[in-house]
Amino acid sequence: MTLGLTLTDLCVNGSGGRVLVQAADLKVPPGTLLGITGASGAGKTTLLHAIAGIVPSEGSIRWGETNFSKLSDHARTAFRARNMGMVFQDFLLFDDLSAHDNARLAAMFAPRAERAEITVRAKQHLSELGLTDPERHVASYSGGERQRVALARALAADPAVVLADEPTAALDRRAADRVIHDLVAACRERGRTLIAISHDTHLLDAMDRVVHVTDGHLAAQVPA
Amino acid sequence: MIVLLLTPIVLVAVLLCRGYAPGPLVRALLWRYRLVNCLFGGLIAVALAMGIAVLAQERGLREGSAQAADGFDLVVGTPGSEMDLMLASVYLQPSRVGLLDGDRFASIAEDPRAELAAPLAFGDSHDGAPVVGTVADFVTHLARGAVQGRLFANTSEAVVGARSDLHIGDHFHPSHGHGHGADHDAHEEVEFQVVGRLPLTGTPWDQAVIVPIEAVWETHGLANGHGAEEGTRIGAPFDPALFPGTPAVVVVPRGMGAAYGLRTTLNQADDMMAILPGAVQAELYRLMGDARQAVTVLTSVTQGLVVLAVLVSLMILSRLFQRQLAMLRAVGAPMRFVLSVVWGHAAVLLSIGTVLGVLLGYGAAAVLSSVLTARTGVHVPAALGVTELRLAAGFLSAAAVAALIPAWWAARTPVAEALRRN
Ligand SMILES: Nc1ncnc2c1ncn2[C@@H]1O[C@H](COP(=O)(O)OP(=O)(O)OP(=O)(O)O)[C@@H](O)[C@H]1O
Ligand SMILES: [Mg+2]
């Protein structure tokens, strides 16, 4: 299954009536790799969080046939669990759990019937991503390895969409390139939609499209 | 009842965790903050242990002293302090009590409601243990007929309590007086041989050396209650004219009704006082009830404060992993799952603290009991009763339910805001 995104008149208001993000119209067809870039403080993270439904917003967010903005908080959470994989800049792993336990996190709260499948997929992704010792605690992993564990976690529930917020910012060039390669491959392979915030030109170059955020407003960039 | 008290925590656990597997994350939290967790567990354990030790100790003391007074249905002395008379007779504590003369003793002994009237004589000691003079029948009464060896048959024989250092066949000289002031040479010429040993009674009498009352009187240069024509006979009856006096008479009545009747009759005489040690102790506990209540309230307050401190600390601690919790919500974990993780962490801490607290409380009660038993000779049992377990179960449930508040507080923080934090 693949999912596309349609934003119409999206508006995120911050405290004090400040408009943080405004997007009149954005269409991301299923399977597109979309890069988001822009100056620091422009509103990229806020936009991504709005798209994921973790910041309240006005206007309409449609994921495929689902009118995401009309869902209850509970339903949005469930939708995220089922359809979205998240990758964060600083990985956000549990240091005291093994790579495998981190990667199969979604199994801990998924319906019983899906647990085994998630666990198997987590293991599979870890080995595909070249992590050969999945029972080791993540505390001893390098940055690049951690981000790949986080990627395995994002993919374990087989999501249609991957959302990433500066996934290579904490990595050196070599590790970043490897993560970019793995991220792009994982999305291309299964027709997943990817929305990735980045300043990293290597990552942006690998995207189908890049939008530039300036002061909360979106502007398309020349496709790479 | 205990199961009922544990229902809330089980209910919360089931409601929160049903369908989820938060175990690995709870373990991760426990391990991540292991030092703090140990500290909190220890605090909880100590707070609970105090309450449990107080309860267990108080009950043990009550049971122990009730048992100690068991063989002493009715004690008669001269008018004065009931407490002093009880301390002197049941607990063998040197006290200031007057003497009953031969006629008074005869009137008690001849009452048909008295099966046995045993005069006591104090004043000497051996190696720190009191030497008590009385009649052979009272030794049989105390021993419930189970004397090892035999009873004393003349004034140079003695029977010892179960915890005495003397053994059958040993010879010893009594010292005059008690404790540090005891004069070891005063009775150089008097020697006793141990011929019998009492079974354990759980009373201070277990440490005592019991000799014929005639021997105590003779040692102190008094008449021995018998005329010259009686030869070396010991025990009742005594000649009132030759009776040097006794500070306390232990009466074994023919039944409980006889005990109350005798007490009334004897108390009507203005030169005698009869007490029921069991009743005196019951009165004492009634008076001490308020103090116990105060101690109970104090320990409860302590427990409450410790739980409060731990829960507040957990709340502060939860800020350290708030980004992780926000991440859980961001990747689609339901609120209830996040709650189950945070609450599970608190509940495990509380459970471990409670189990440790019960063990620690029991240990403290056992140590206190053995100290008390060694000091007083009163056997103070230390056992975990239903009351203590009920306290522990109630404590655990209440604290676990209260732990929902910090858990909810931690899980409720807006996801996007928490994700931004560094
Ligand atoms: N709840 C809020 N209320 C008011 N202002 C907010 C709120 N959340 C974020 N902001 C502000 O909105 C702006 C955009 O923040 P955002 O994190 O989206 O920027 P960004 O483009 O991701 O920047 P960076 O590249 O540094 O991560 C910032 O100035 C931030 O301080
Ligand atoms: Mg950002």
Automatic annotation (TrEMBL), chain A:
Single GO term (MF): ATP binding
Protein origin, superkingdom: Bacteria
ABC transporter domain segment(s): 5-224
Record SMART domains: AAA
Entry GO terms, CC: plasma membrane
Keywords noted in UniProt: ATP-binding, Nucleotide-binding
Protein name (Swiss-Prot/TrEMBL): Putative ABC transport system ATP-binding protein
Keyword Methyltransferase: no
Similarity-based family: Belongs to the ABC transporter superfamily.
InterPro entries the UniProt entry points to: AAA+_ATPase (IPR003593), ABC_transporter-like_ATP-bd (IPR003439), ABC_transporter-like_CS (IPR017871), ABC_transpr_LolD-like (IPR015854), P-loop_NTPase (IPR027417)
Pfam families: ABC_tran (PF00005)
Organism expressing this protein natively: Sagittula marina
Leader sequence segment: none
Spans through the membrane: none
TrEMBL record, chain B:
PANTHER family: ABC TRANSPORTER PERMEASE (PTHR43738:SF2), ABC TRANSPORTER, MEMBRANE PROTEIN (PTHR43738)
Keywords tagged on the record: Cell membrane, Membrane, Transmembrane, Transmembrane helix
One Gene Ontology cellular component annotation held by this UniProt entry: plasma membrane
Chain ranges passing through the membrane: 35-56, 294-317, 337-368, 389-411
Chief place where the protein resides: membrane
Annotated organism of origin: Sagittula marina
Topology class, membrane: Multi-pass membrane protein
UniProt subcellular location: Cell membrane
Top-level lineage group: Bacteria
Protein name: Putative ABC transport system permease protein
Domain ABC3 transporter permease C-terminal span(s) in chain numbering: 305-408
